[in-house]
Structure formats: structure tokens, C-alpha cells
Amino acid sequence: MTTLNHTGVSHTVFHLLGIPGLENQHVWISIPFYISYVIALLGNSLLIIIIITKSSLPEPMYLFLCMLAGADIVLSTCIVPQALAIFWFRAGEISLNRCITQVFVIHSTFISESGILLAMAFDRYIAICYPLRYTTIVRDALIGKIGVTVILRSFGLIVPIIFLLKRLTFCKSNILPHTSCNHIVLAHASCDDIRVNIWYGFFILMSTVVLDIVLISFSCMLILYAVFHIPSQDARQKALNTCGSHVCVIILFYGPGIFTTLVHRFGRHISPHIHILLVNVCILVPPMLNPIIYGIKTKQIRDQVFHVLLTKQK
Q1: SS3 state of residue 95
Q2: Which intervals hold domain G-protein coupled receptors family 1 profile (predicted)?
Q3: pLDDT digit string (tens) for 261-281?
């Protein structure tokens, strides 16, 4: 494959390699990708259907959970089918516009998920610390406003990335060593100064994910303080069970991302394909396990899933 490298020539088509160095193993690597995508698609779709159709799940927590499941489906669908096309058919060709669109969808959806998890932490804080005022504080109108705010925040912060990428001249290699388009990976294919892209990416990370982690951690400390001051042991256990699934999902969402960032920053001796595999784990695992965690740890959802499955068998 010939790659142009002349000044003034800007590539409009790129080639995603998948996982460089493991090309011979792509078929085997595609198996967990495919299985995780099917589980994520079926699990989150079932979760959304149950929450929307069952009037016995009216609590705001389930509406936030429905938003989270929808974001998981979008994130998985934006990445996995293309990765499978690369693994199975070596169909890694992608246009610049489509690549930038993928960058926008992936980044905005990820930030939206972080915002939804923050909203769910706020919901649990109000439910446990102010149980008598919960229904008057967390109303449908507030949930709608939170949803709109989450979307506007993610879109508003990611839209400038489109223009930051559009201004660049891509005169280096048009080979992208990844399974999907990434803001910084694509920017490094440019011959221009990308310091603005790097600093803006850092600003987005600090003002969204890092800030959300701090606020979620603070709310968790307040929740734990309130829980352990509940006189009734049964009520204390119920409150802990209610928050247990949410804490698991938070750890699952942020944990791999933090680990990947540390590896990327300090593990320079680690092979590039390890970095790419870790990034994909961050994207594949949470959408697959989120519905399973909520299905196991949330009795109302578990009962509804059993009811749906048993009804279909009859």
C-alpha cells in the first residue's frame, strides 16, 4: 500500500489496521468482540424494553438506567461492527468525514455515559439522605432537564473537535493503527501543529470525566455516612444493596479507563497492541456487563426479566 508523504497533500481516506502485530490472530480476537457485542445488544435492549413497558418500574433510577443502556448500545454499535469488518474482511478503509463523525459519536457518547452515572449518583444521594423529600425533589421535569443537560454538555464539548480536526492537513501516513478513529490518533497523522488538539483533549478530560469522578466519589462518601447512621439494620442493608449495583457499574466504567491511562502514560515499554487491546476492553466490557449487574443486583429488574423469559417459554 503506497502512502503519500508530500507537503500539501491531504489524505481523505484512511486505513484502520485493527490491532497491529496481531494480524494473524484477528479471527480469534474477533470471537470475544462478537460475543460481547451480542450480549451488550441483547442485554441493554431487554433492559430498555422492560423499563419502558413495565409500569411497576416508575422510579427515576430506572429512567437513568434506560439512558445508560441506550448510550451503551450506541457506543458498542459505533465501534464493534467496524472492528469485526476489519478482523473478518480486512475492510479497514474509512473516509476522513466518516472518521471524524466516528470520533464525535464515540467521545460524546462516552462523556454522556459519565454524566448519566453522575446523575444516578445524585439520585441515590437524594433517595438515601433525603428519603421523605425524594418524590418532591426528583420529578419527571428534573429528570428531563438532567437528560438534556447531559446531551448538551457532551455535544457542546465535542463539536469543537470537529473543527480542530477539519483544519488539519493530513499529509503523513494514512495508516491508523487502531480498530476505530480516535481524536489524538487521527491528529497525529497531520503535519500541522496539534498542540491545540492535545490541550483541548486534556481540558475535556479534566472538565468531564475527572470532575464527574470527584463529584461521584463525594456523593458516595455522603451516602456511606448516611447509611451507617441508619438505626435499623434492615434499612441499612437495603440502602447498601440499592447502591451496590451502581457502585459496581461506576468501578466498571471508570476503572479500566484509569488503568489504560496509567499504562499509556507510564508503560512506554509495553507493546502498542496491548494499548489498543486495553482501549477496546474499556469500550467492550461495560456495555456487556452493565445489564447483567443490574439484572442480578436489582430485584425488580431481575423479577421482570424472569417474567419475560418464562412468558416467552410458555
Answers
A1: strand
A2: 43-294
A3: 666 556 667 777 787 888 888
In CATH terms, the fold of domain 13-313 is: Rhopdopsin 7-helix transmembrane proteins (1.20.1070)
Tens digit of each residue's pLDDT (9 = 90 or more) over 24-35: 999 999 999 999
Cβ burial of 231 (10 Å; 0-12, 13-18, 19+) is: exposed
Rounded CA separation 47/33 (Å):
21
Q: Give the amino acid at 77.
A: T
Q: How confident is the model at residue 124 (pLDDT cuts 50, 70, 90)?
A: confident
> β-strands 175-176, 93-95: how paired?
unpaired
pLDDT at position 261: 65
HSE value, Cβ hemisphere, 13 Å, CA-based, for 63: 16
Cα-to-chain-centroid distance, residue 67: 12
CA distances from 78 to 104, 240, 283 (A): 10, 35, 10
Instruction: Quote the distance between the C-alpha of residue 153 and its chain's center.
Output: 15
Q: What is the pTM of this model?
A: 0.90
